[in-house]
Amino acid sequence: MYDIKVIDSFTNKQLSRLKLAKAYVKDTDEPHGIMVRSSTVPDSLITDKLLVISRSGVGVNTINVEASTEQGVAVLNTPGVNANAVKEAVISALFSVVRPLNKAAEMVQTLSGEDILIQAEARREAFIGRELQGKVIGIVGLGAIGV
Fold it and tell me: Taking the model in full, what pTM does it have?
C-alpha cells in the first residue's frame, strides 16, 4: 500500500484510479507519492520515503527538482494535458475582444422603465463590435498549443 498526499484539488474520478495501484489518499508528512497542480511542494515532504511527485500540468517550477533528484524521487508532469482548455480560453478571449457581450449584458441590466427597447437601441452602437468573417487570424504557440 502506498500513501499519496494530495496538494490542490482533484476530482473523485481522478483519485479513484489510485486504488488500482494500491495507493490511497492520506494526509501525511511522509507520503510515498505526491499529487499537485499549481501549489508549491514543501521541501519538508521530500524525504527518503517519497517515491514520486506528479504534477498535473506543464512544468515543474513549483517542485524542488534538485532535492528530489538527490533523494531519488521521480518528478513527473503532464505536458499537453491542459492544451484544449488553453485553446478554448484563447478562442473565448478572441470572441470577447471582437464582441463585448459581457459589457452589453451589464448595460442591459441597468435599464429600467417602460422604454427599455428605446434605451437599449440608443446605447447599442458601443456594443456592436466587429465580425470575424473575412479576417485572418494567426495563432502562434508553443508545444501542443497553436498546433
Answer: 0.67
